[in-house]
Amino acid sequence: MLKKKNIITNILYTPKWAPYFFILPFIVIFLVFFLYPFVNAFIMSFENIIGPNQVVFVGFQNYKSLLDYHFFNAIWNSTRYTFWTLIILIPFPLILAVLLNSEKLIGKKFFRAALFIPILTSTVVAGIVFSLIFGDPQLSPANSLIKIFGMHPKTWLRDTKLAMFLLVLLATWRWTGVNIVYFLSGLQNIPKELYESAEVDGAGNFSKLLYITIPLLKPVIIYVLTISIFGGFAMFTETYVFWGTHSPEDSGLTIVAYLYKQAFETGNLGLGCAIGIVLLAIILTINILQLKFFGLYNKEEA
Amino acid sequence: METRPINVQSKGINKNSILKNYTLIVKLMVRSAIFMFFVILSIIALFPLYYLIISSFKSADQLFTTGLGVTINLKVMNLKNYISLFGSQGGLYLSWYKNSLIITALGTVLTLLFSSMVGYGLAVYQFRGKNVIFTLVLFIMMVPMEMLLLPMYKLMISLNLLNTYWGVILPGVVSPTAVFFFRQYAAGLPKDFMDAARIDGCTEFGIFWRVMAPLMIPAFGAMTILVALGNWNNFLWPLIVMRTDQMFTLPVGLMSLLTPYESNYSILLSGSVLSILPIVVIYLINQEAFMSGLTVGGIKG
Known about the structure:
- The complex is a heterodimer.
- Chain A has 15 helices and two strands.
- Chain A is mainly α.
- Chain A has a two-stranded antiparallel sheet with strand order 1-2.
- In chain A, strand 1 and strand 2 form a beta hairpin.
- Chain A is globular, with a radius of gyration of 25 Å.
- The two termini of chain A are 45 Å apart.
- By secondary structure, chain B is mainly α.
- The longest helix of chain B is centred in the first third of the chain and has 42 residues.
- About 2% of the residues of chain B have low confidence.
- At the A-B interface, helix 1, helix 2, helix 5, helix 6 and helix 7 of A face helix 2, helix 5, helix 6, helix 7 and helix 11 of B.
């Protein structure tokens, strides 16, 4: 007992052993809740899991059965969603941040806060509100609004053509404020003298944006780009709260929604794992391409 | 670019001052246009929450028969939906609230403790395998957690953690983002304190706990908000772990009320309002901490 206590005190007192004590939580969690399931995901993707003890090795069969319309549709939807969130959620918040950063705007703290508040709501609550606003009855707020413009009321959530619009709108509502804050914190690191000397040289607002702001914000832009791509391809809750896994003609079915559907509704865990592996492959590929084109976003820190 | 009326007084209206006044007017117009633009954006951003709140005071019949009006009409608004949350009609709402509170509190405390230990260990010590560990942290950040969903689900079954608080909490107690952030922060702390504490006979953990951790309070503040909000609003993992409706968290429970056929609006909307109320209140008290907390991980240096 005494000896054991000595070892513990030794570990806690010697700088040589202490670091391992500090990183121990990481090692344990990494092995149990990352490495083990990570390896298992690959193994399971080659299996047909019928019951807890009924597992059959099926080779590439799960991957083969992914080569169909449903999965391509899911990949296409996730890609379109990611594309639109990037197209909207980078330039738009960037310009808003530049405007909010100008000293002359009255009430900028209020505007920043008002645009930030939506992210505090969970996706589920946001989805509940959106399905009310875009509800079917003739008098839903969305339909009253388009009536002003002379348009006919729509059945928003049942219209295949509007599914992507609603998903992107929900994301825009929730994330604009966060991206603004990212860009604002980047803008505050740009020295004011740069703008002053540009003004002396006769640069207008637009060329200042193009030649000073955007190049110097590049690390932030790449960071936001990276997390948006991740979030975009892994999107699930937004579509689930609107339609469950049964959107009209699968117009809102994403990769993770398809994974969930296969695993928990069809009961096909092996196929679900294969979908997860494809998701990993897509994200890693984009990551590598991005590193190649832009370099590490935190190069200075390394 | 201040225009002063000196010109006007001395020489009357000359060409120069007309031009100056003109640019001033254009500038003012641009500024007010930008101002109005932000007013409209703020209204759009806040409208869904406003709409949720007024709807939560209306009965389900009101919501669908007299239309989903956006005006405040005190005649049709009452507190019934809120009262029913606490009665038998509210079903399991209070249990969901309790579950969310427990998971958020416990999960956040453990995540902060473990992630700060790991981040600190990586920042202040030199040891074998340090780079391997750090690379692994970065690697985890690159892997979409959704791909681990099913093997993790299987693991929860074998560990008997399905439908338990620990099942939701444990996989997240070392957050790579938090580790990364604490490492950055701890690397900037002065190391002189550590040597002084060592001479005083402090253990290495004591140095962390009593000397260094207090210096990291701003980092803890930012991470508390990030981690707690993540836990409170988390949906997919609790949806998979929690198998009975008594164990649901708020997002999972609220979601279960929203069915395509007959949503239970009387408690859905008031329940949603109460689920975001604590966060909005804390945010309004401490805005800056929230904004830095939620945008952590990005841009330092």
